C-alpha cells in the first residue's frame, strides 16, 4: 500500500523577511553619520580618525555599519583614500542640509533660553508709556534687538485678565491695581501736574498747592481715570475741606487738553507727560510729597518666558541705579 506524504513545506529563513523589517524600523546612528561626513570631507578614513582623536579602525567599523544599515556603498576605497559613490554624494548632500537645520534649531533654542530671541507681550496704560517706561523699553530693545515686542493698551482690569489668560507677559499698571494670583513689583513713581489754560490765573505759580484747586472744576479722560488721578485729587481736596467738582469722559488725553483750552475745566496728568506740547495748555506741578503715583509691573509667577525675565531683570537694575546715591 503506497504511503502518501505531504510535500515538504518551505521554511522561510529569517534573513529573507526580518532583515528588511528590521532595517525599516531601526534607528540610524547619528554618530556614525557624523563620522562618515567627516570621512567624506577629508576623503580619508585615517585623516578623519586623526581629526576625531580616535582609532582608524573605530571609524572604519562605524562607516561599514552605516553602509550595511543603508544597504548601499557610500565610498569607493582607494589606496590614496576614499571617493564618494553617486549614492554617497546624494546621501551626504541631504545629511549636511539636515545637520545644518539641526544646528540652526539648537542655536535658536539657546538664544531663546538666554532671552536673546523670542517675543514679549507688554500691557501699558497711555499714561505710563512716557518717562521711566520709555527708557526701559529703549534700553531693552538696544540690548535685545532680536526680541519682538508686542504692546496692548487697555483698561487695567482688561490687562489683568489677559495676563491670567497668558495673552500678556507683563503689564505696567498703577500700584494698588487688584491682581490676585500675580507677582507685583513697584518700579517707579511719578508726580502729579495740573493742566491749565495758559490764560488761567494759576499759571503765574511755579507750583500749585491742592488748596488752590478746591474750588476748581476738573475734566478727566480715561487715561487720568485709569491712572487713579481722580482719587488722588479727591482725597487731597477733601483734606482742605473741599469737594472735588469733576466730570469724566471716555476720551483721550489729547481731547481733554483741547477742552482745557476751551475752558471746560482743569486736567490732571502725571509729570512724565509734561514734555508733550499742547498749544494753549500750561502744566504746573503739584507738591510731590502731597501726592504721587506709583507704577508697578504685574505678571504670572509661572510665566517662564526668558525674554520677559530678562526684561524684568533690566527693570530692576535700572531701578537700583536710580536709587543709588550719587557720589
Describe the protein.
GO terms for molecular function: DNA binding; DNA-binding transcription factor activity. This is LysR family transcriptional regulator. It holds the Pfam family LysR_substrate. Belongs to the LysR transcriptional regulatory family. Residues 39-85 form the HTH lysR-type domain. By secondary structure, the chain is an alpha/beta fold. It folds into two domains: 20-112, Winged helix-like DNA-binding domain superfamily/Winged helix DNA-binding domain (Arc Repressor Mutant, subunit A); 119-327, 3-Layer(aba) Sandwich (D-Maltodextrin-Binding Protein, domain 2). It has eleven helices and eleven strands. It has helices at 14-25, 30-42, 45-52, 56-70, 86-113, 132-143, 156-164, 222-226, 229-239, 253-261, 306-323; strands at residues 75-78, 81-84, 118-124, 147-153, 170-174, 183-197, 217-220, 245-248, 267-270, 281-285, 292-299. Strands 3, 4, 5, 6, 9, 10 and 11 form a seven-stranded mixed β-sheet that branches. A two-stranded antiparallel ribbon has the order 1-2. Strand 3, helix 6 and strand 4 form a beta-alpha-beta unit. Helix 2 (30-42) packs across helix 3 (45-52), helix 2 crosses helix 4 and helix 3 crosses helix 4. The longest helix has 28 residues, at 86-113. The protein is rod-shaped, with a radius of gyration of 36 Å. The chain starts with 13 loop residues before the first helix and ends with a helix. 28% of the residues are buried.
Amino acid at each position: 500500500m503506497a504511503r502518501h506524504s505531504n510535500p515538504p513545506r518551505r521554511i522561510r529563513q529569517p534573513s529573507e523577511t526580518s532583515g528588511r523589517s528590521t532595517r525599516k524600523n531601526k534607528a540610524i546612528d547619528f554618530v556614525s553619520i557624523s563620522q562618515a561626513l567627516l570621512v567624506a570631507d577629508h576623503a580619508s578614513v585615517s585623516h578623519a580618525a586623526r581629526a576625531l582623536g580616535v582609532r582608524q579602525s573605530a571609524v572604519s567599523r562605524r562607516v561599514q555599519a552605516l553602509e550595511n544599515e543603508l544597504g548601499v556603498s557610500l565610498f569607493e576605497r582607494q589606496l590614496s583614500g576614499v571617493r564618494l559613490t553617486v549614492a554617497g554624494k546624494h546621501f551626504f548632500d541631504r545629511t549636511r542640509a539636515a545637520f545644518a537645520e539641526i544646528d540652526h534649531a539648537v542655536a535658536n533654542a539657546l538664544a531663546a533660553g538666554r532671552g536673546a530671541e523670542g517675543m514679549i507681550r507688554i500691557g501699558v496704560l497711555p499714561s505710563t508709556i512716557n518717562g521711566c517706561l520709555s527708557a526701559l523699553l529703549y534700553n531693552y530693545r538696544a540690548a535685545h534687538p532680536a526680541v519682538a515686542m508686542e504692546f496692548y493698551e487697555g483698561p487695567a482690569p482688561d490687562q489683568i485678565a489677559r495676563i491670567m489668560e497668558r495673552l500678556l507677559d507683563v503689564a505696567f499698571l498703577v500700584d494698588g491695581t487688584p491682581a490676585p494670583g500675580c507677582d507685583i513689583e513697584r518700579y517707579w513713581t511719578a508726580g502729579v501736574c495740573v493742566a491749565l489754560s495758559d490764560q488761567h490765573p494759576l499759571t503765574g505759580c511755579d507750583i500749585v498747592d491742592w488748596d488752590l484747586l478746591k474750588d476748581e472744576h476738573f475734566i478727566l479722560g480715561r487715561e487720568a481715570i485709569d491712572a487713579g488721578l481722580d482719587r488722588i485729587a479727591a482725597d487731597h481736596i477733601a483734606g482742605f475741606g473741599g469737594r472735588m467738582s469733576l466730570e469724566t469722559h471716555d476720551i483721550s488725553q489729547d481731547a481733554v487738553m483741547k477742552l482745557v483750552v476751551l475752558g471746560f475745566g482743569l486736567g490732571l496728568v502725571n509729570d512724565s507727560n509734561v514734555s508733550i506740547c499742547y498749544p494753549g495748555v500750561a502744566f504746573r506741578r503739584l507738591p510731590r510729597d502731597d501726592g504721587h503715583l506709583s507704577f508697578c509691573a504685574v505678571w504670572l509667577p509661572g510665566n517662564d518666558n526668558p525674554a520677559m525675565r530678562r526684561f524684568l531683570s533690566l527693570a530692576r537694575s535700572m531701578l537700583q541705579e536710580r536709587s543709588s546715591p550719587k557720589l
